[in-house]
Amino acid sequence: MIISILNFSEISDADVQVVLKRLDSRLTECCFPNTGSSGILQLENTDDLSLINLKNSEENGIIYLWGGKPDLTSAIRFHNKHCADNRYGFVFTAISPALGECWSESLFLESIQLLMSERFGLPEPVDTSDQQRDFAI
User: Fold this and answer.
1) pTM above 0.85, yes or no
2) CB < 8 Å & 24+ apart, contacts of 74-79
3) CA distances in angstroms from 116 to 37, 73, 75, 121, listed in the order given
4) CB contact set of 40 (below 8 Å; sequence gap of 6+)
């Protein structure tokens, strides 16, 4: 599975790229021996949204690094407009410290969730309203 990372946060792309290199090897160590599958984390250029050319596919995933005030409604609307067919997750960088995690740990956990949902057919989030995130079963 290719997991594209879209960085809309205050974290520099250079810092994100350093973290992605470490997380790629962690994902392989954690997931491949137990499941036979792994993912590749790939930073996408978000300078010009018209250049984002992600393959819309259930086999691929997207994780958004979302900075500033967490706004799930706007984040889901953005996803639905640009990449609706892909599995997805969000890392709200302002929330990670409140959870006692660094944003990179939140990214790692979100990556594992996407890999496992693809591997085991777990339910994926479905936008059922502007205010609520529900899960299809």
Assistant:
1) no
2) 76/127, 76/133
3) 9, 25, 22, 8
4) 1, 2, 3, 24
The answer to whether 28 and 21 are in contact (CB under 8 A) is: no
The C-alpha atoms of residue 89 and residue 61 are separated, in whole angstroms, by 8
Question: Quick one: which of 85, 48, 83, 51 has its CA closest to 64?
Answer: 83
Nearest to 119 by CA among 6, 20, 32, 21: 32
Query: What does the pLDDT look like over 75-131, one tens digit per residue?
Result: 998 888 877 778 899 999 999 888 888 999 999 999 888 887 766 565 555 554 444
87-107 b/e (C-beta count within 10 Å ≥ 16 → b): bbbbbbbeebeeeeeebbebb
57-74: pLDDT as tens digits = 556 889 999 998 888 999
Torsion sign across C-alpha atoms 40, 46, 48, 49? positive
Amino acid at 125: P
